[in-house]
Amino acid sequence: MTPERQNRIESVLANRQSGLTVVLENVHNPHNISAVMRTCDAVGIQDIYILNTTIAQHEYFGPKSSSSAAKWLTVHEFNDAATCFEALRSRYKTIYTTHLGADSVSVFNIDFQADIALIFGNEHNGVSEATRNLSDGNFLIPQVGMIQSLNISVACAVSVYEAFRQKNNAGHYQGLGKPHPSINALNKQWTVKPEIRTKWRKR
């Protein structure tokens, strides 16, 4: 490990945001998941949650997936919504789902300085009703076009970069935010061999 590499790891970890996460519910396309992971890594999201209640657990992501951003993230997999929400509630104050409804708030009106989890749903059916009922509210991305939907990876990118904007303006990337609780463990993990770098928690 060169000093330059170690400095890079420490710089990235210093910008990991403990109060922001993304949850993907029954997302079929592994390329969509991969794109979401790359965006999460880019804005300093360390933990993401994969909730599969109607589809099989993905095999595409794991320790051998060297081209995936997964090796730099902590991926929590669940096949039960209640168990997933129990884990989310232990760390995040508010849980929002992407859903176009009368009570949905604009993503630009969410206060991302709080601890927040954003749930993105299936490519065809969106977030399930059961998951919406477990959440605190719904949000949408304002659009003025004929097609009132975005690809899930695009929707996630727009949303988490709004979070990035707010957090950056508030100094969360300049040391004023809460450090990630696993920063020391991640530092050790990232300096070991690539094939054992990824940390998965399967439920």
Describe this structure in words.
This protein is an alpha/beta fold. It has one domain: Alpha/beta knot (3-Layer(aba) Sandwich), CATH 3.40.1280.10. The chain is 33% helix and 18% strand. It contains six helices and eight strands, in the order H-E-H-E-E-H-E-E-E-H-E-H-H-E. The protein is globular and about 50 Å long. 36% of the residues are buried.
List the helices and strands and how they pair.
Elements lengths: L2 H12 L5 E6 L4 H14 L3 E5 L22 E5 L2 H9 L4 E5 L6 E2 L9 E5 L8 H6 L2 E4 L11 H18 L13 H8 L8 E4 L1
Parallel strand pairs: 1-2, 1-6, 2-3, 3-8, 4-6, 4-7, 5-7
Low-confidence stretches: 62-67, 195-203
What is the distance, rounded to the nearest whole angstrom, between the alpha carbons of the first and last residues?
Answer: 33 Å
In CATH, what is the homologous superfamily? SPOUT methyltransferase, trefoil knot domain
Question: Mind summarizing the main beta sheet?
Answer: 8 strands, parallel
State which percent range the strand residues make up. Answer: 15-25%
Strand order of the largest sheet: 5-7-4-6-1-2-3-8
Structural class: alpha/beta
Shape: globular
Question: How many distinct helices?
Answer: 6
- CATH topology-level name: Alpha/beta knot
Number of domains: 1
The share of residues in helices is: 25-40%
Mean pLDDT: 87
